[in-house]
Design goal:
Keywords: Disulfide bond, Signal
CATH architecture of the largest domain: Alpha-Beta Barrel
CATH superfamily of the largest domain: Glycosidases
Pfam families: Glyco_hydro_18 (PF00704)
Structural class: alpha/beta
Distance between the termini: 33 Å
InterPro entries: Chitinase_II/V-like_cat, Chitinase_insertion_sf, GH, Glyco_hydro18_cat, Glycosyl_Hydrlase_18
CATH class of the largest domain: Alpha Beta
Strand content: 15-25%
Protein name: GH18 domain-containing protein
Number of domains: 2
CATH topology of the largest domain: TIM Barrel
Radius of gyration: 20 Å
Largest sheet: 10 strands, mixed
Organism: Octopus bimaculoides (California two-spotted octopus)
Oligomer: single chain
Helix content: 25-40%
Shape: globular
């Protein structure tokens, strides 16, 4: 099935010109500051020349106002904005919402005209106060997770009000918007009973619908078939892998039976979810890397653990796919999950750097 992370939009103040060339949009996750050791990530780790846009995730909704989540968020806001003194072309945006927030607060904001007016005014004031270039509205999801059916219409009204004052960059079907980023990952994960890759570029040769829809190429073609110009589309690229525990060590290919998630990584600590720098440690410990030649992505097997992830070769393939297809760029989740410290031996930010270099070439 076509997968994207809900209704996500980016709003950039009118008068802000977009960086020319391919877009390289990167998320900064504020909770990565609490990881231990080599996993700890703050604004001090952000390379201001790496991405065209950096999005600070997340703020929350407090009534009809934006508000910080962490006590030190506003300090880190300023530190992130200060990176623009080193690279004036960098765009820094603030994201509100995320998976853990749900729909209740968004439903309230969008449900009445007075709330929409107040939120629009307050949001613009908040962004200007902290010198952000715009807002990433990350509602997961309208009409889901407790959100009533009418939310999609109320949300459209909220968008209409916001678009009247901001240049809109939206993650859903609207040919009048500036660009669309597809969340082309989380196609498969440990919520399923068989192994599957997090973000395959193409379908596997033996796949039939609807399984054959769960890949980057199908998603991109779906959007263009609806009339979206390829230049408006960003392809989502993950710097994390999705892992499974195999039912049998003797059956370890794609679609192998699985009994649950792989153990959490030593730094990310979420079962079935590993940063790229954690995956490379599995390889260094003796994990065997296999390539899905049809899907053009790798997976690693060590013992009864199976992890589908992206490596340098696969992200270069995706960057080349973007260029050949005339797509507008990529969206990366996240900076903190790439090997930002260079512990894997391929330099700092090997995945994002590979994408950037592929665009240069």
């Amino acid at each position: 099935m076509l997968t994207y992370s809900g209704i996500i939009l980016l709003l950039v103040f009118s008068g802000i010109s977009l960086v020319t060339g391919k877009r390289l949009v990167c998320y900064y996750s504020n909770w990565a500051q609490y990881r231990v050791g080599l996993g700890r990530f703050t604004t001090d780790n952000v390379d201001p020349y790496l991405c065209t846009h950096v999005i600070y995730a997340y703020a929350k909704l407090n009534g009809n106002q934006l508000a910080p989540i962490e006590l030190n968020d506003e300090m880190y806001y300023q530190r992130m904005i200060n990176l623009k003194s080193r690279n004036p072309n960098l765009k820094v945006l603030l994201a509100v919402g995320g998976w853990g927030v749900g729909s209740k607060a968004f439903t309230k904001v969008s449900s009445q005209t007075s709330n929409r007016i107040e939120f629009t005014h307050n949001a613009i004031q908040y962004l200007r106060k902290h010198n952000f270039d715009g807002l990433d509205f990350h509602w997961m999801y309208p009409t889901s997770k407790g959100s009533p059916a009418g939310d999609k219409y109320d949300f459209a009204e909220l968008i209409a009000r916001l678009i009247s004052q901001l240049l809109l960059i939206f993650y859903i079907n609207d040919r009048n918007l500036d660009f669309i980023t597809m969340m082309t990952y989380d196609f498969h994960g440990a919520w399923e009973k068989n192994t599957g890759h997090n973000s395959p570029l193409f379908q596997r040769l033996n796949e039939k619908p609807p399984q054959s829809y769960s890949n980057v190429n199908w998603a991109a073609r779906y959007w263009t078939s609806k009339g979206i110009p390829p230049s408006k589309l960003n392809i989502g690229i993950p710097t994390f892998g999705r892992g499974f525990t195999l039912a049998s060590r003797m059956i370890y290919g794609p679609s192998a039976p699985a009994i649950g998630p792989s153990p959490g990584g030593i730094y990310t600590r979420e079962p079935g979810y590993l940063a790229y720098y954690e995956v490379c440690k599995l390889i260094q410990k003796g994990g065997h890397v296999y390539r899905m030649n049809d899907a053009q992505v790798p997976y690693v097997v060590i013992g009864n653990q199976w992890v589908g992830y992206d490596d340098i070769k696969s992200v270069i393939n995706k960057a080349n796919y973007v260029q050949i297809g005339g797509y507008g760029g990529v969206g990366v989740w996240t900076l903190a999950l790439d090997d930002f410290s260079g512990s894997c031996g391929s330099g700092k930010y090997p995945l994002i750097s590979a994408i950037k270099n592929a665009f240069r070439n």
